[in-house]
Write a sequence for this structure.
């Protein structure tokens, strides 16, 4: 149960549209949206950003989902890891690759492009935020400026989502119930080794 109860029945045009969009895209109205709907002005500011970013398509969908899931793992957001795992599976990622994500540096399952983006995403998520110039130069050699901007925005947005959900106690919505176990963050995997 989240720390703040969400809206069950949408009231007003914005809530109805946001709930409809969530059902259309995700198959249900997700808990973070229900909670955010309690503050119509926050919802009004946030909903168009999500909708418009879904149309950003200079990077492969699979790459964006992979990077977003890694950010969710680092922040340890149960909701975002759950939905991120589901979206990765839908985008064609194997369960083996998803399980290897916390230790992607040691896994042969990740392409060079994925490695560059994952390194950048981790640098953007960890505090203090320090972007390695060598990594950024490699990104620029492989991706266009527009693609790097899209990558940075998706990483920043997932940081916002994961921190919002985690802070408000929003748990899994059961997108991957039984399909794949929770993936611990990298530091937990490394500490266990």
């Amino acid at each position: 149960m989240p720390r703040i109860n969400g809206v069950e029945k949408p009231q007003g045009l914005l809530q109805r549209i946001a709930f409809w969009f969530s059902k259309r895209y995700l198959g249900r109205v997700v808990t973070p949206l229900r909670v955010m709907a309690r503050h119509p002005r926050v919802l009004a500011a946030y909903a168009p950003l999500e909708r418009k970013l879904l149309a950003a398509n200079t990077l492969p969908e699979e790459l964006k989902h992979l990077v977003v899931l890694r950010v969710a793992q680092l922040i340890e957001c149960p909701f975002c890891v759950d939905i991120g795992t589901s979206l990765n599976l839908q985008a064609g990622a194997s369960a083996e690759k998803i399980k290897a994500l916390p230790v992607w540096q040691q896994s042969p399952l990740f392409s060079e492009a994925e490695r560059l983006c994952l390194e950048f995403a981790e640098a953007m998520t960890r505090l203090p935020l320090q972007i390695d110039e060598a990594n950024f130069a490699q990104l620029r050699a492989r991706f266009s400026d527009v693609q790097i901007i899209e990558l940075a925005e998706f990483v920043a947005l997932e940081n916002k989502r994961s921190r919002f959900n985690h802070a408000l106690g929003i748990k899994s919505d059961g997108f991957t119930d039984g399909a794949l176990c929770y993936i611990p963050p990298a530091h937990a995997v490394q500490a266990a080794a």
Summary: DSSP finds ten helices and no strands in the chain.
